[in-house]
Design a protein that fits this description.
This protein has four helices and nine strands. By secondary structure, it is of the alpha+beta class. It has a single domain, classed as RNA polymerase II/Efflux pump adaptor protein, barrel-sandwich hybrid domain (OB fold (Dihydrolipoamide Acetyltransferase, E2P), Beta Barrel). The strands form two sheets. The chain has a six-stranded antiparallel beta sheet with strand order 1-2-3-9-8-5. The protein has a three-stranded antiparallel beta sheet with strand order 4-6-7. Strand 2 and strand 3 form a beta hairpin. The mean pLDDT is 97.
């Protein structure tokens, strides 16, 4: 269910690392919990993001939720298609609906993230309560 080539946060973001750059998105669980997504606010290219801090937000018919950076770095690109087609996040959260690409400034931060198996376990534990 959750791609093995990424790491996950307990706030339901994912990060896929390739060298010193990474792609960030929200998980299937996050989009499912939000419902129909109607607006996405993305960071500005060139801005710095900090692990654990908000990098943007997602608005659904239910609520507005912050998106938290899984790691720190400089924003190299954002997925501009999401500004005109936010519903893509509901359709393909682990693929075409990535949010931002960043150059990592502190790769050691990745050590605190969950692999796919640990994230799935976390979701199972969370839903049991």
């Amino acid at each position: 269910m959750y791609p093995e080539d990424r790491l996950y946060t307990k706030e339901h973001e994912w990060i896929r690392v390739e060298g010193d750059t990474a792609t960030i998105g929200i998980t299937h669980h996050a989009q499912d919990a939000l419902g129909d997504i109607v607006y996405v606010e993305l960071p500005k290219v060139g801005s710095a993001i900090t692990a654990g801090k908000s990098l943007g937000s997602v608005e659904s018919v239910k609520a507005v939720s912050d998106i938290y950076a899984p790691a720190s770095g400089e924003v190299l690109a954002v997925n501009g298609e999401l500004t005109s087609k936010p519903e893509k996040l509901n359709e393909d959260p682990h693929g075409a609906a990535w949010l931002a690409k960043v150059r990592l400034s502190n790769p050691a931060e990745l050590a605190s993230l969950l692999n796919a198996q640990a994230y799935q376990f976390y979701l199972n534990e969370e839903s049991a309560h």
